[in-house]
Batch of 4 targets.
Target 1
Amino acid sequence: MPYSPPSRCTDPECHELATKGSRCDDHQPIPWQGRDNKAERYGITSGEWRTLKRKVTLRDNGCCYMCGAEPVDPDLYDPDDRSTHPHELDHVIPISEGGARRSLDNLGLACTSCHDEKSKLEAARANERRRRRSPR
């Protein structure tokens, strides 16, 4: 079966032939570049985040601090159904609004539905603040 001839790298100043995808070996994209990094975003490592979640789970008996939902049974976990996912560790007062990053008083477990709703409201408030600050 015939195949297409090799093409040039898509970098405008490169004249090498593409090896993988549409780029040469020197211009391959960096894996995971631009992905969210909690350590840089919050200043908290993943191990520290797990420790905080464990402490808050023990303190709150695994219940959602907003609606009081009981912890989800791990045997019922379904990757496609967010209501079966474990509760998420949440900052009660968002860091962007002056909340403490590591204070147990500012952390609580939230069920996925409460966490999603709260996150939408926080994003709307942040967008509103951004709109008020930017000159038109």
Note: Helices lie at 38-42, 46-60, 112-133.
Target 2
Amino acid sequence: MTPRLDAIGLVASDMAASLAFYRRLGLDIPAEADSAPHAEATLPSGLRVLWDTEETVRSFDPEWTRPTGGERLGLAFLCDSPAEVDSVYAELIEAGHQGHLVPWDAFWGQRYAVVLDPDGCGVSLFANAA
């Protein structure tokens, strides 16, 4: 048997805020998950995104501490067009989320932007240039 990537896990300091952010990016997460210690969303590809509260993680890993410093994992959301990158970025900023990199035309041929989720994780928005 060969292991296969099945899920990406995120630790949320505020579950409701984290899930609201990812709902704005199209993930189908039930409302009742906002108050749960664990939540999941299955993407069309079958890959799952998992969220656990900090308390949940500490329940099985008492030594766990909130990371500080640079990121080691990033999520990237493909948009249908460069204009959608701009509009999704603007929508997230208007909703009160922090921008990290405003939309720009990257040298590798994509329209690209980065917004921070409620826990400060960079979430990329990108589309192939027209």
Note: The helical segments are 15-24, 54-60, 82-94.
Target 3
Amino acid sequence: MSTITRIETDPRRSRAVVYNGMVFVGGMTADDRSLDIAGQTRQTLEKIEGYLAKAGTDKSRLLTAQIWIKDLDRDFAAMNEVWNAWTAPDAAPTRATAQCDMGAPDILVEIIVTAAVGE
């Protein structure tokens, strides 16, 4: 039986869960919600990198991503510009992007990723 490791758990959620050689990083959003979509995306991706590091991996081992955007028409291109610059060369994960209502009105993007841990 594989061990389940939970990172930064509170009564509602864990920020990341490591199981069976994979890390599941829960929905991440920017801390500074006054930023535009590019700024919120950059800040969100920085947080994801931190949780990947805590789990013993990095963005070059991403397997899949889900990106939730408040306004696709307005923000898709700018979010993609930041995303494309951030992903590791030749290591882009599978990805789905959708528009949705967010948990707070000033959240513009939320990102969920799954990655492989270690070799």
Note: The chain has a mean pLDDT of 96.
Target 4
Amino acid sequence: MPLADKPYTPLVVMGVQGCGKSTAGQAVAARLGLPFLDGDDLHSVSNKQKMASGHPLTDADREPWLRAIGRELAAGLQRGTATVIACSSLKRQYRDLIRSYAPETQFIHLDGSRELIAERLTQRDHEYMPPTLLDSQFATLEPLGEDEAGIRLDISLSLDEIAAAAAEAFAPAGH
């Protein structure tokens, strides 16, 4: 039976910009045999323009985007498969909103120091997320709570180690 036919739950790879959400999300999805979606693709044009101009999004800006993330996760379940989505999910209320659409959703919080992430940001060119927004991302971040379904993984792990840890944590019982 292919992995995607097994009863996985939807997964959101979360964290601040530059922590490796998209790259790790793709690796986790590939390891589990699940579809991957980059949550950035669901941002509105106005959100992308706002971020590109160096302005952080407000909760009101994020709400329609988070609802779209939740709807995508729920739609995957309706199709019979879990989806892995990269989405910052910086605040608990954001994660709660996502879970209001797909309550089974679990989170992989990619955690790392501001210094390491700032260094990584110097090595990438993002379409609309300038490095100047990193401080606002850390100021907004509410780490995954111990009572929330999910795991925290250190971004200093290799991509293979992150994917393996996620696969081990989220493999259905008996697999």
Note: Confidence is low (pLDDT under 50) at residues 1-5.
